[in-house]
Amino acid sequence: MNLEKDTYKTIEIAVGDALYKEKGSKFIGYVFPIASEDDVKINIDELKKKHHSARHWCYAWQLGIEEISYRANDDGEPNNSAGQPIYGQILSKDLTNVLVVVVRYFGGTKLGVGGLISAYKTSAKLILEEAVIVKKTIDVFYKLNFEYKDMNKVMRIIKEQKLYIENQKMELNCEFLISVRKKNAFKVQQLFLDLRCLKIKEVTP
């Protein structure tokens, strides 16, 4: 993933049941949007209930936007014959915050390591081709504190820079939580600082 960009690609809706067959074995692909490692466990546990008689539930996931974490799991298949080919497809689509699982029902004929790599790679490719991939911006969040009398000055910048107000409290003293595309963050911060009538602080939402 290119760290210079301020966008990233992911999915928002889970997709499943992409079927691939090879020498009697069935490989069924699934992809899920995830926000944490806890989501990985929840989704895999659900698939194990759904496919309780399957032999393997191999998977790979990637999380994070600027600091990336990932894992590839062969779940009993020969080393690097399942999880890594699946992870390779996540990388080829340049995706993050996703989990791809391929469930295998053994068909009685061994495929060999090469055959397994091909089957898991193909299954992951098929399910990712079915998924709707969305591009999102990497945003910086600022908290603005100002007096109500300065509302017009603040709103002028918000409108001119096409900023999004995530949250607001409008009283005698006002508080806005705004989001700014990362590449515009420094410029926007300076515009608000130049007003000299508010406090601006970068926050984690």
Automatic annotation (TrEMBL):
Protein name: YigZ family protein
Top-rank lineage group of the source organism: Bacteria
Domain Impact N-terminal: 23-127
Family annotation (SUPFAM superfamilies): Ribosomal protein S5 domain 2-like
Family: Belongs to the IMPACT family.
GO biological process: regulation of translational initiation
GO CC entries: cytoplasm
